[in-house]
Each structure stands twice: as structure tokens, then as C-alpha cells.
Fold this protein.
Amino acid sequence: DPGESGTCIQDCGDTTNPTLSISHSPTTGITTSTTVTLTSTATDNSGTISQIDIFVDGGSARTCTSSPSPSTCTYASIYSVGTHTYYATARDPSGNPARDPVTGTRSFSVADGIPPTVSVSHTPLSGIGTTTTVTITATASDNVAIGSIQIFADGVLVRTCASSPCTYPATYALGTHTYYATATDTSGNTARDPAT
């Protein structure tokens, strides 16, 4: 009597869920130019995994189908600045499911590793006298956002701007005068023109 033994006397089918894990690499130093690889591995008592799905930021990123257990599914991509979430699901030939993590998501953060670009010049280019207003102009751009632009004249910081372009008009005494500009993005990456 099956009710007495608590076991099936006929094939009751596979009711064991697969085991599943997912992780990302690298785990540190991730920037907008870093390829992040998500790796999901599933095992099942049946010896076969029917499907593994990897989801990134709420959407389906990769589906791997029908392979021997243990089965590995990978997804590699680069990402924008910020925090990104992911998880994986799997099922075996009997339709038993698995999810990692069981609830919620795992995540990684991407930093901006790309410095801004900056260029600086002056006008007019010739005919400059002590009464001539010389305007130094620095322009900068960044893949995310510019935090600040600074203009230095004769080694002294003379102007700081929060956006591009940044200008500094002034008159100068006789002689040769030097200038340069720096730019810093919102992630702290810096650039200088000229470079040295």
C-alpha cells in the first residue's frame, strides 16, 4: 500500500529541483571599459539541464538550452556607470525550476574610468598689446558629465567653471605669458591641456 510505505510503487517522475548559481567577474575595478562576465552553473539529478536563463537589469540577456549536467551559461558585456542587477533561472527536463538568488538579485557597480577631454586656446592670436583683452577659452567634454574646468594663467588659477566652455578675459603686462587648463569629470577623472 503506497499510503503505508510513503513511496511510489510506480514511476512518480522527477520532482527534484536543479541546483543553480550565478556570479560575475571581475569583482572589483569595474569601469565603463571593463567586460563583465556573468557565469551561471546548474546541476541536476537527471544528468541534463534543459535551460538556463540569465537576466540583467530586469531583462533577459542570455538563454542556454539543453546540455549535460553540470551546465554552464555565460554572458559578457560592458556596462554604463552605476549599479547593475542580475539573476539566473534554470529548469530540468521534468520542468523543475531553480533560481539564484532564490529571491531578489545580485549586483555589481560600474565606475567611470574614462577621463574627460579638454582643449585650451587664446584670442586674438596676434597684435596683442598691454591694452588688448586676451580671452583664454577652455572647452571640455566627457562620456558622463563634466564636473569642473579650471584655467591657469602664469601658474595661477584664474577661473573655475562648472560647464563648458570656460573663458577668462584679461589684459597682460609686457612679456610672455603662459596658460593651461584642466578638466575633472563627476567621477574624479582628470585631463590637462597641454598634457605637460
About this structure: The longest strand covers residues 59-68. The chain is about 0% helix and 55% strand. Helices lie at 2-5.
